[in-house]
Design a protein that fits this description.
This protein has 285 residues and is of the alpha/beta class. The chain has 2 domains: 95 residues, no CATH class; 153 residues, no CATH class. Strands 3-2-1-4-5 form a 5-stranded mixed β-sheet. Helix 2 packs across helix 3. The longest helix has 22 residues. The protein starts with a helix and ends with a helix.
């Protein structure tokens, strides 16, 4: 019961997150810091206002021109001057959205998902295979299985294999185990885990009949022997492999909130929009 009440309260607090107007109190102080020793035209609007605009764009699904009207009305109540729609469009491209890191070693779940870059149907891809490329990009993510929070993210096109991003995804994360599906069960990923100081095999799923020979990966050989000794059920229980669904749950929640496609039209804008959505969702209470 207590767990449900806490979850219910967190959902209620999201409404406060959507309309957090603290930028009004810090407007002048923030601009003074931003314009200190700045060359050229000074900033007229603080970054915290642009953060608020990014929330309106992603969570409230406001197009830029409607956002200008929204800010005008809100500015009339709160006493601030609203920018025209071109200002958030330009400034939001330059905002830095940081993903909070943990210093404690954690268990990490890794996976990838697709985000459509167009709403066109699958029929076009299946019918004109080779002439029309499927409209989606790939988001690779590492999630803390205990908190369900995002730890790292990389965005590529759909041709990039999951294992090629494994090292970059985990770089900078202190982990004690890694959970991943069969896409990460190659020696490249195992060698990286060994290089990071892991003596016990990570929870990366191997093929059913994976070889027990070294093949230039001592840790993968150890994992194959462990798999053969324990069987799938025993291996799954040892690593708590069911916790890997925390990353699947994160993907599902982001897509339910924002949809499975993007509104931007340029490749740079698409990548920026997807990254912004994932990081903003990660900051929800």
């Amino acid at each position: 019961m207590d767990t449900w009440s806490n979850y219910n309260e967190a959902l209620v607090k999201r409404g406060e997150f959507y309309l957090d107007v603290c930028f009004v109190q810090t407007w002048h102080q923030e601009l003074a810091v931003m314009n200190d020793k700045k060359r050229g035209r000074p900033y007229a609007y603080p970054n915290s206002l642009m953060d608020f605009c990014s929330v309106a764009y992603c969570f409230l699904h406001l197009p830029y021109r409607q956002m200008e009207g929204f800010l005008r009305k809100l500015g009339g109540f709160l006493g601030f001057r609203a920018p025209d729609y071109t200002t958030p469009f330009r400034r939001m491209q330059k905002l830095d959205f940081e993903i909070p890191q943990t210093e404690e070693p954690v268990v990490v779940a890794v996976d990838a998902t697709g985000i459509k870059v167009t709403t066109r149907g699958e029929w076009m891809y299946k019918t004109w295979r080779g002439k029309e490329q499927k409209g989606w990009i790939k988001v690779h993510a590492a999630v803390d299985v205990k908190t369900g929070k995002l730890l790292a993210m990389e965005i590529t096109d759909f041709r990039c294999h999951d294992s090629l991003v494994f090292e970059k995804l985990l770089d900078g994360i202190q982990f004690k185990d890694v959970l991943g599906d069969g896409a990460y069960g190659n020696r490249r990923c195992y060698n990286y885990c060994e290089m990071r100081g892991m003596d016990d095999p990570p929870g990366l799923k191997l093929r059913r009949h994976a070889t027990t020979k070294p093949h230039r990966s001592w840790l993968r050989q150890k994992a194959a022997l462990e798999w053969k000794k324990l069987g799938y059920e025993g291996w799954k229980e040892k690593h708590g492999y069911g916790r890997r669904w925390s990353v699947e749950g994160f993907f599902s929640a982001v897509k339910r909130c924002f949809g499975e496609s993007v509104r931007a039209t340029s490749p740079e804008g698409m990548i920026r929009e997807v990254g912004m959505k994932f990081v903003l969702f990660n900051s929800l209470p």
